[in-house]
Amino acid sequence: xxxxxxxxxxxxxxxxxxxxxxxxxxxxxxxxxxxxxxxxxxxxxxxxxxxxxxxxxxxxxxxxxxxxxxxxxxxxxxxxxxxxxxxxxxxxxxxxxxxxxxxxxxxxxxxxxxxxxxxxxxxxxxxxxxxxxxxxxxxxxxxxxxxxxxxxxxxxxxxxxxxxxxxxxxxxxxxxxxxxxxxxxxx
Length: 187
What we know:
Belongs to the YggT family. It comes from Trinickia dabaoshanensis. The protein has 187 residues and is mostly helical. It is built from 6 helices and no strands. The two termini are 17 Å apart.
C-alpha cells in the first residue's frame, strides 16, 4: 500500500511540474506574452530550476533549451524515484532509465496538450469571453489549426478539439505501452 501511495504522489507532483516546464518552453515557441497570470505562475513555479540552467544553456531561436533540459532532468529524477520504489537498483538499469525518461517527457507534453484542449473546449462552451481564452487559443492553435483545415465546421460546431483529443490519446497509449514494455516498475 505504501508503494502505491508513494507512486501516486510522485506521479502527481512530477507530472504537474514536468508539464509546467514543458508549458514554459511551449509559451516561448508560440510567443505568449510574458505578462499574464498564467505565465507568471509558470515562471514562479519553475524559475528555481530553469534560471540556473539558462546561464549554461541559452535559448536557441524560439526554443527554451533550459526549460526542456529542466523537464528532462525532472523526468530522470522521477523515473529513478519510481525505480527505487520498485526495489530495483537504478544503476543496473541506467540505459533503460534514459529511454523511459524521454518517453516520460513526451507523455507529459501529450498530457499537457490534452489538458489545454479540454480546458479551452470547456471555456469556449461555458464562458467564451473569459480572459483565459486568448491564452488557451494561442497555446492550442498550432495543433488545432491544421485539423480545422481538414475537418469542416458543422454549423458552428468545431470538432477539431475532439479529433486532437483522440489523436493525442492514441499517442499517449503508444508512449505508455513503450515505457511499460521497457520496465517492470510501470510508469
